[in-house]
Specification:
Blueprint: E1 8-11, E2 14-15, E3 18-19, H1 21-37, E4 41-47, H2 51-57, E5 63-68, H3 77-92, E6 96-100, H4 103-116, E7 120-130, E8 133-140, E9 145-149, E10 156-160, E11 175-179, E12 210-214, H5 224-234, E13 237-240, H6 242-246, E14 267-271, H7 277-283, E15 288-293, E16 306-309, H8 312-327
Parallel strand pairs: 1-4, 1-6, 4-5, 5-11, 6-10, 7-10, 12-13, 12-14, 14-15, 15-16
Antiparallel strand pairs: 2-3, 7-8, 8-9
Helix pairs in contact: 3-4, 5-8
């Protein structure tokens, strides 16, 4: 096994399709931290069948440990793999562990923190290396403040928000090493009785390059037909604010913001969205932000690249018609 004492580990998240996208972002970040600190960077995949996810992670990291945990797919993953990972950490002595701030990632890191007695810094928007170790930026109070924190010990766990880092494969693919480890303890497990996949022909919203989002200003479920039509004309995905989701106009899977998805598209077109701070933190890193709103004093005007003052039910169909006319 490659030397991992004092290393930076990336806890990759397996999915039914292979590897979660946020794990590739975490790996890219870890390479940057490794270069700045002179520490080794190692990926870890723990799953019932880790081979596919480990191979994907090896495209981003020089070395990946592949840990087979029998029955991990039959129970909630954190409780299944945390004891094995805790035993592996105690044996190999890495210094810092990084994971994605997904529901599964947060569960796993929380359990590891308890098993190892390590500190945890969560939902990082940026991480840099200093003489004292990782310096972690976090958005708090609904995005109103940004804090910078560090560990008081020479070890710790970090979760990073999706789309905080642009994933970039390494120049050369790394190696995958199967590892056997006996868990030092066992956690109570929650059995998975059924998995239900959301029906959607589109790519996950957090991976979309173009997003058309609707807010309270669309007025109701029928108003989202205009949003969906413009998204189709642009070849993009449909998003929404929490207000629209709470009203039942659109599923939670499309919610963008502090309590929803963090997105980073090339184009973000906001229809009837005021731009409250809770929504802003979910989409502010979009390359180009275009807003359509009747209120010239809406907060989104302060950070949008282009603000169109007008009725979205007139502006959006006109844009869609022009796009289709050009493509036809």
């Amino acid at each position: 096994m490659a030397a991992t004492s004092g290393a930076i580990w990336v806890l990759g998240e397996p999915t039914p399709g292979g590897l979660a996208r946020v794990s590739t972002e975490a790996a890219t970040l870890a390479r940057t931290l490794g270069a700045a600190s002179g520490r080794a960077v190692v990926g870890v995949i723990a799953d019932a069948d880790p081979a596919a996810a480990a191979a994907e992670l090896a495209a981003f990291l020089p070395h990946v440990l592949s840990v087979t945990v029998a029955g991990a797919r039959d129970v909630v993953s954190g409780a299944a793999v945390a004891p094995s990972l805790a035993a592996l950490v105690e044996r190999e002595r890495p210094a810092y562990l990084i994971a994605g701030a997904t529901p599964d990632g947060r569960d796993l890191v929380g359990m590891l923190g308890a098993l190892l007695g390590w500190g945890v810094l969560v939902n990082a928007s940026a991480v840099a290396w200093t003489d004292e170790g990782p310096s972690v930026e976090m958005s708090v109070f609904g995005g109103r403040l940004t804090t910078t924190s560090a560990f008081t010990a020479d070890h710790g766990l970090i979760t990073i928000r999706p789309n905080s880092v642009a994933a970039e494969p390494a120049d050369q693919a790394g190696t995958v090493e199967p590892v056997t480890i006996a868990p030092a303890s066992a956690l109570p497990s929650v059995v998975v009785l059924e998995r239900v996949a959301a029906e959607s022909a589109a790519a996950p919203i957090e991976e979309a390059q173009v997003i058309v989002a609707g807010g309270r200003g669309v007025g109701g479920p029928a108003g989202f037909e205009v949003v969906e039509d413009l998204a189709a004309a642009l070849g993009g995905a449909v998003g929404a604010t929490r207000a629209a989701v709470d009203a039942g106009w659109i599923p939670y899977s499309q919610q963008i913001g502090q309590t929803g998805k963090i997105v980073k598209p090339k184009l973000y077109l906001a229809l009837g969205i005021s731009g409250a701070i809770q929504h802003k933190v979910g989409m502010q890193t979009a390359e180009t932000i275009v807003a359509v709103n009747r209120d010239p004093d809406a907060p989104i005007a302060e950070f949008a690249d282009l603000m169109v003052i007008g009725d979205l039910f007139e502006v959006a169909p006109a844009i869609a018609a022009e796009l289709r006319a050009r493509s036809g």
